[in-house]
Design a protein that fits this description.
Distance between the termini: 55 Å
Structural class: mainly alpha
Mean pLDDT: 80
Largest sheet: none
Order of helices and strands: HHHH
Shape: globular
Strand content: under 5%
């Protein structure tokens, strides 16, 4: 049973690395895509990679320090997206675009925000069901 668990985790990690390599290769491929659909590809691609990265992290480490991983994803994802856009400057048909970089960041941020909200809701639900929730912890708004 433990062998299956480690095998599944290893396959998931290999798939994440493969996904990143495919993304890098597509980034350097001399393919021309119309501008409107280009932004959609950037958003979906980076959203999918971010979602898969979160799933892989949770598979390996559980949900401990998940908020720090979200911050890491935003930082590292922003740098990775910037580098991938910069590398397009050296490809014949591709161009380096700040708008594409911002779209990449939007895809990463969208998935991180959804995952953060889902994790926060789950954590609050557990606190309520276990009786660990104290109303003194709620912020008072006037």
């Amino acid at each position: 049973m433990k062998v299956e668990k480690y095998m599944r985790k290893s396959i998931q990690l290999i798939l994440l690395c493969l996904l990143l390599m495919i993304g890098a290769l597509l980034d350097l491929a001399p393919v021309h895509v119309p501008d409107g659909i280009d932004k959609l590809y950037h958003f979906i691609g980076f959203s999918f990679i971010t979602l898969f990265a979160i799933a892989t992290y949770v598979s390996f480490f559980g949900k401990k320090l998940l908020n720090f991983f979200f911050m890491f994803l935003l930082t590292f994802g922003g740098v990775f997206a910037g580098i991938s856009e910069f590398l397009q400057k050296f490809v014949a048909v591709r161009d380096c675009s700040v708008a594409d970089w911002i779209t990449n960041l939007c895809g990463i941020s969208f998935v991180v925000a959804l995952a953060f909200l889902a994790y926060s809701k789950e954590r609050r639900t557990v606190e309520l069901s276990e009786g660990r929730f104290d109303f003194k912890d709620l912020p008072v708004v006037f």
